Amino acid sequence: MPPRTPGFTLIEILLVMAVLGLLAAALYPTVTGARQRPYNTAALKCGRAIVTFETTAPLTLGGYVTNLADMGPDVKAACLTAGVRVAPANAQVRTPDAATTQTVTTTPTAYAFQVFHPRGSGYYLFTPPSGSASDDRLGHLHRWPTQETP
Question: Domain spans of the chain?
Answer without folding.
Answer: 40-143
